Amino acid sequence: MGLDKFFNPQSVAIVGASAKKGKVGYETLISMTGAGYEGKIFPVNPNAQTIEGLKCYPDLVSIGEIPDLVIIIVPAKTVPAVMQQCAKVGAKAVIIITAGFKEIGQEGRALEDQVIQIAKQAQIRLLGPNCLGVIVPANKLNASFGGNLPHAGAIGYLSQSGALLAAILDMANANGIGFSKLVSIGNKADIGELEVINALGADPDTKVIAGYLESITEGDVFVRKTEQISHEKPILLIKSGGTSAGAKAASSHTGSLAGGETAYECVFERAGIIRCSSIKQQFGYAQAFAYQPLPAGRSVAVITNAGGAGIMAADAIEQQGLTFAKLADETIKKLAAKLPLAANLYNPVDILGDALPDRYEYALDVVLDDRNVNTILVLLTPQAMTDSAATAEAVVRIARQKTAKPILACFLGSGKVADAMKILREGKIPYYDSPESAVAAITAMADYVRWRSRPKRVVKLFPVNRRKAENIIDRHLRQGIREIVEADSKEILEAYGFVTPKGAIATTAEQAANIAEQLGYPVVLKIWSPDILHKSDVGGVKVGLTSAREVMDAFDLMMYRIPKQVPNANIMGVLVQEMCKKGKEVILGMNRDPHFGPLMMFGMGGTMVEVLKDVSFYLAPLTAEEAKEMLINTRTYKILTGVRGEEGVDIDAVAEGLQRLSQLAMEFPQIQEVDINPYVVGPEGTVPVAVDARISVEKV
Ligand code: ADP
Ligand code: MG
Questions:
Q1: How far, in whole angstroms, is CA 684 from its chain's centroid?
Q2: pLDDT digits (tens, 9 = 90+) for 273-328
Q3: Cα–Cα nearest to 445, from 609, 234, 267, 248
């Protein structure tokens, strides 16, 4: 059935309908009748004969037919009894508006469980509880107490907060914004965000999906599904409230660098979801997507009657990573033919303060034809001569004739441009109150276009020794060890194709010297203890040792000093390791989010990683392109490509390391965190070395 009965019911019962003004049971009934709903409405209330002229029923059973949709507004304690009635009469779609369930604590949760149980048994689909309801303007359905029925339009909205939806409705009604569907999901006892997003994805009336979410329930399915839907329609989400993995205490660099928001950022990036930081921004974007075609590229032309506004737009275009369109000679020629001498013919095209609508119309028409231009922003400030309303009409007229490229407007001011805004709104030209917010909407569109046209994701699978890694992990889990020390971590990594420095473990100074002799100098000595995670912090790393004498001294010194510094640490010995060739130190990491899975990290490594915080994250599994993108997304990427005559590093080799680590993380859900730090990388053609590694595991 999908959500059809919620969106297009032929009959609606309102259990708890009331004749008292101000009560939810009254407001909901009025919403339904006021919207001009054409199906049947059955108010249910044992204490009334009629409400608002409609025959009232004592209970659901006495209606004598099965209502397509039942809205429940009775007090929480009586909701289970009403649900039983729903089951009895065979109702299949129920909205529980009543609050006082899971959100109030233990008692409410028990009540909600009871409701869920009844719904499951009777195969009733449930929206809420603790929600505002459903609104479908095209069907004149206002099954809510949120306010007046908005216009029909192309935006489908879902909200986890009912109260916020009421505010959105008010704002939208004041600005003439139209909706295909508005759905309040409340406590998500049954129908959750994903099902609604899915339904909006399949809904031909919905061009843009927008929503407000506080939590995401089925993380991995959410990613997969929304990624599919994003290819068809843009999804614009505000995500507020609780962080995802934030609560878990992390012991790795990667874990502590991954903030609570990181998982959501990764998920949205992967799924092509456009994240919005405010309702205003969201609707600014939504209107651009709903009313205008998508731009073919990132170049923008600006037409303005004010130099200052033009510069503000130009700055925003640069800052937000769009390009400033270079107008073709022919365009310039055409502009020169009709514009005043003092006009600026180059982008931003300044048609001067005395520009009348005809000048705007001409310039817009000419610039739209320029093939170097993907999007046009029309700026206006209301000056003495300006006729903003007629200019708005001119913009609308041209936009109707030439529909291939997006046109956005920013008419600055308030009272003097009020009429113009109304005309723009009716003419489906999205308008903004600042050049920056207009440019932000263009950026959102251009980014979406880029996301959609990225190459198909192909995740490479490397041949690995999975069994070997499994044995090491299992052994640790059997012994109840969660932190795998450097030597064992490296064995796991070797099984996945990583190169690590040669070395061996020693428990005495003589043994350490022997190993060093075999490895050849210089060597590195590192403390070996499951209780010491960051070895240099306690003087547990000594590099550049060039003789047996130095090795033995370093050994003795560590054994003397470290137990004093970390009295409870169980010290097993040292790791004697060959010294690696010099290179850049980067970090490859993984931190598993309990909902969304492995978050991969790349950054500038070494012991300063948490000070520099120059890292980027991406959701596993990684494609080659994504792995490379992670490198590009760090501030210091330039250093990796080589600056000031210094040779760059083998970027592809680093990206491959990230992909191998991503494969390891995907194949072993037991692995919670990984730090490969440093991963030492040299010039092109050299093999990077995992100089240090730590992996933490957990039984799953
Ligand atoms: P920890 O991170 O636990 O302090 P590391 O093994 O990462 O210990 O060592 C700290 C630093 O010492 C590294 O960032 C690297 O600069 C240097 N180092 C460690 N091992 C080697 C090695 N085998 N070759 C070269 N340099 C090394
Ligand atoms: Mg390290």
A1: 34
A2: 999 999 999 999 999 999 999 999 999 999 999 999 999 999 999 999 999 999 99
A3: 234
Nearest to 626 by CA among 297, 269, 256, 259: 269
Q: Whose CA is nearest to atom 7 of ligand 1?
A: 692
Distance (Å) of CA 455 to CA 226, 249, 655: 17, 36, 17
C-alpha 486 – ligand 1 centre gap (Å) = 11
- DSSP states along 79-142: HHHHHHHHHHHT--EEEE----SGGG-HHHHHHHHHHHHHHHHTT-EEE-SS--EEEEGGGTEE
Residue 566 · residue 531 · CB < 8 Å: yes
Distances (CA, A) of 262 to 213, 249, 310, 628: 16, 15, 35, 18
- What does pLDDT average to over the chain? 94
Which residues line the pocket of ligand 1, CB cutoff 6 A? Answer: 501, 524, 526, 534-536, 541, 543, 577, 579-580, 585, 606-607, 677-678, 691-692
Predicted TM-score (pTM) of the model is 0.91
Q: What is the pLDDT of residues 534-566, one digit of tens each?
A: 899 999 999 999 999 999 999 999 999 999 999
Q: Which residues of 288-297 are buried (b: 16+ CB within 10 A; e: fewer)?
A: bbbbbebbee
Amino acid letter, 435: P
Distance 464 CA to ligand 2 centre (A): 24
The residue whose C-alpha atom lies closest to atom 20 belonging to ligand 1 is 691
Q: Which of 441, 415, 445 is nearest to 313 (CA)?
A: 441
State how far the Cα of 690 lies from the Cα of 586, in Å rounded to an integer. 10
- Burial environment of residue 385 by CB neighbours within 10 A (0 to 12, 13 to 18, 19 or more): exposed
Are 80 and 121 contacting, i.e. CB atoms less than 8 angstroms apart? Answer: no
> CA 372 to CA 448: how far, in whole Å?
20
**What is the sign of the dihedral through the CA atoms of 261, 267, 272 and 273?**
negative
